């Protein structure tokens, strides 16, 4: 009877000694004092942020590091420490890169892409003058209808968070089969799934073409980027090759930038409205050791002409919305004119 | 990691020293097991914060023993984890389907030694972190092959002790979280990422990039009950020095729903 007791004792000792044994293979938990949190965040920026060399941002990484680290000490309050982080965020000028307090809602820092340019969008105007409660929908985000006695198709998508099937997109485009052209209104579309915005864009190409390259950060070194050569491949479904007017404003961002740069090379596509917001890169997010939630751009898109699109994309035809004139949406009217000549 | 492969070498070398024997006993069992596990996680690519928690561990195993041991089974963890340094949470799901083959090296009245292999055609884990966006879901999946050694010793008429140890040989393993984005590192490094189609589901992870170790210590009581301690750890890296480590320690109780033993005595007497 003694032997089982020995074995059981051995087992208990073994369990205690091996419990969470994998932690021996882990790096130690980080500290959460002010300097440690700053250093943790800066290391992430240093190793993962993909746009230090973006010529439009004119960033001096070493100077930014030197200056902001000098501001941090252990006597700083959490508010003040967050102020230092906010300073960094504003220097990056990148709507995909921000930080907030995680479960602590008191903190939030984001570069405001609306700071540059007017909004050029009035939802009430579109509803009252063009949609008039008489339109079709697909999912929660797409509204579409015929304008100008069926000559012009109008589609608005305010987010790329819906999932459309190939059959559903074919049905939408078949509805516009007899139009002279299409207006694609993506103003205020702040993004979503780039696979979905690309999926929609594939319905306007009749052959594969080159878009540019996305540079992903794949390692900690300054030059640890991988280059993804991006192409747009036509869908096997319905393809619309008549004139397409894409309406843009400053809040076209992220996956809408993907949509814009995917359609840009097409000769039948014209962009009308205002400069887009950018957000050309893909982003990653996680928590710092104190629970603050960070996100940053870890890739950057550079188009086929070598342009960095993170600060936006200028339309072919710049048109501003006259907020004093409630009789028309000048941007939609210009798009109709481009299609019908009227 | 080198220490583990050295240990594996020692186990195999030591086991190989036993002479082979044979048995005529046939044993067929079908087990249902449940237990609780303490889990751990760290992904240095993004943070060195340790996450740990608890989970429920179900297990089913069908085993057939004659000269060799064959077993098929599924096991998993349903749990949640919290970070050590702040208030947060993650839900964790880990499931493995396996086939294990063991070959007898030594069949003595007091103890038995087996060596063999364990194929895990499905090793799938999903980890969903509260409050995150692109990095909110870890998906790690693959097919693994392990070398396994097992020691078995009868303590008395009621109790039987067994312990086994398994080491990763190779794996087709894929992690959806690369150094900077929620996409497979190999796909990005190969320049094959695009928005027209999803990325390839599998990529080869050589054994030197993937440490996968498991131990099982079992006490079998009578014909039906097994008390087990399980330790399982995986460590891999897509970028050197930025390792992802996860593991669990589990206590389990299994019951042989079916336990059929047959010993052809007449033939033994010849």
Report on the architecture of this protein.
The complex is a heterodimer of chains A (342) and B (270). In chain A, the strands form 3 sheets. A 7-stranded mixed β-sheet of chain A has the order 3-4-5-6-9-10-14, with helices on one face. In chain A, strands 2-1-12-11 form a 4-stranded antiparallel β-sheet, with helices on one face. A 3-stranded antiparallel β-sheet of chain A has the order 8-7-13, with no helix packed on it. Chain A has a domain at 123-277 and 307-340: 2-enoyl-CoA Hydratase, Chain A, domain 1, CATH 3.90.226.10. By secondary structure, chain A is an alpha/beta fold. In chain A, β1 (98-100) and β2 form a beta hairpin. The radius of gyration of chain A is 26 Å and the shape is elongated. Chain A has helices at 2-18, 34-48, 61-70, 78-92, 123-131, 166-175, 194-201, 255-263, 330-340; strands at residues 98-100, 108-110, 136-138, 142-147, 152-157, 181-185, 209-217, 225-232, 244-248, 269-273, 283-287, 293-297, 299-303, 317-318. With 270 residues, chain B is mainly beta. In chain B, 9% of the residues lie in helices and 62% in strands. Chain B has helices spanning 2-16, 185-189, 265-268; strands spanning 26-43, 51-56, 59-65, 69-83, 90-107, 111-129, 137-154, 159-175, 204-205, 210-221, 225-239, 242-262. In chain B, strands 1, 2, 3, 4, 5, 6, 7, 8, 9, 10, 11 and 12 form a 12-stranded antiparallel β-sheet that branches. Classes of the chains: A alpha/beta (342), B mainly beta (270). At the A-B interface, α1, α2, α7, β7 and β8 of A face β1, α2, β10, β11 and β12 of B.
């Amino acid at each position: 009877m003694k032997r089982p007791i020995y074995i059981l004792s051995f087992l208990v000792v073994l369990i205690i000694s091996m419990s969470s044994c994998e932690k021996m293979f882990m790096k130690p938990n980080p500290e959460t004092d002010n300097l440690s949190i700053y250093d943790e965040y800066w290391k992430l920026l240093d190793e993962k942020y993909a746009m230090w060399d973006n010529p439009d941002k004119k960033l001096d990484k070493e100077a930014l590091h030197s200056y902001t680290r000098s501001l941090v000490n252990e006597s700083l309050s959490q508010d003040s420490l967050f102020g230092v982080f906010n300073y960094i965020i504003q220097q990056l000028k990148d709507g995909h890169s921000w930080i907030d307090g995680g479960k602590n809602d008191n903190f939030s820092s984001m570069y405001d892409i609306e700071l540059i340019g007017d909004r050029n969008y009035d939802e009430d105007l579109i509803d009252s003058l063009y949609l008039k409660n008489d339109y079709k929908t697909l999912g929660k985000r797409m509204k579409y209808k015929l304008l100008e006695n069926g000559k012009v198709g109008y589609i608005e998508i305010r987010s790329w968070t819906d999932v459309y099937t190939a059959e559903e997109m074919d049905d939408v485009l078949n509805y516009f089969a007899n139009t002279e052209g299409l207006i694609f209104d993506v103003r205020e579309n702040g993004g979503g799934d780039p696979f979905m915005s690309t999926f929609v864009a594939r319905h306007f190409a009749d052959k594969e073409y080159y878009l540019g390259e996305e540079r992903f950060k794949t390692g900690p070194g300054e030059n640890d980027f991988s280059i993804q050569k991006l192409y747009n491949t036509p869908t096997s479904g319905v393809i619309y090759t008549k004139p397409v007017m894409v309406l843009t404003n400053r809040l076209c961002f992220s996956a809408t930038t993907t949509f814009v740069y995917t359609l840009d090379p097409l000769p039948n596509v014209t962009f009308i409205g205002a400069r887009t917001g950018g957000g050309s890169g893909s982003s990653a997010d996680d928590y710092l050791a104190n629970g603050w939630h960070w996100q940053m751009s870890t890739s950057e898109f550079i188009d086929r002409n070598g342009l960095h699109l993170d600060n936006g994309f200028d339309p072919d035809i710049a048109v501003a919305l006259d907020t004093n004139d409630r009789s028309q949406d000048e941007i939609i009217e210009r798009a109709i004119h481009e299609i019908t000549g009227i | 990691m080198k220490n583990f492969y050295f240990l594996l070498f020692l186990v195999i070398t030591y086991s190989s020293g036993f002479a082979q024997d044979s048995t005529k006993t046939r044993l067929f069992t079908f087990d249902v097991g449940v237990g609780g596990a303490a889990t751990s996680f760290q992904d240095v690519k993004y943070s060195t914060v340790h996450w740990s928690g608890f989970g429920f561990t179900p297990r089913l195993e069908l085993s057939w023993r004659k000269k060799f041991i064959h077993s098929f089974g599924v096991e998993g963890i349903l749990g949640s984890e919290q970070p050590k340094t702040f208030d947060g949470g993650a839900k964790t799901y880990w499931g493995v389907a396996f086939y294990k083959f063991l070959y007898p090296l030594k069949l003595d009245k007091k103890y038995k030694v087996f060596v063999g292999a364990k194929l895990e055609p499905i090793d799938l884990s999903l980890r969903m972190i509260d409050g995150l966006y692109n990095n909110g879901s870890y998906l790690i999946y693959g097919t693994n092959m392990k070398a396994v050694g097992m020691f078995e010793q009868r303590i008395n008429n009621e109790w039987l002790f067994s312990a086994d140890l398994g080491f990763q040989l190779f794996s087709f393993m894929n992690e959806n979280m690369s150094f900077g984005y929620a996409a497979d590192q190999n796909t990005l490094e190969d320049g094959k990422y695009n928005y027209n189609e999803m990325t390839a589901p599998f990529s080869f992870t050589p054994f030197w990039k993937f440490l996968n170790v498991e131990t099982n210590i079992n006490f079998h009581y009578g014909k039906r009950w097994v008390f087990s301690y399980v330790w399982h750890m995986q460590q891999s890296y897509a970028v050197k020095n930025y390792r992802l480590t996860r593991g669990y320690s589990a206590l389990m109780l299994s019951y042989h729903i079916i336990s059929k033993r047959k010993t052809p005595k007449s033939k033994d007497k010849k």
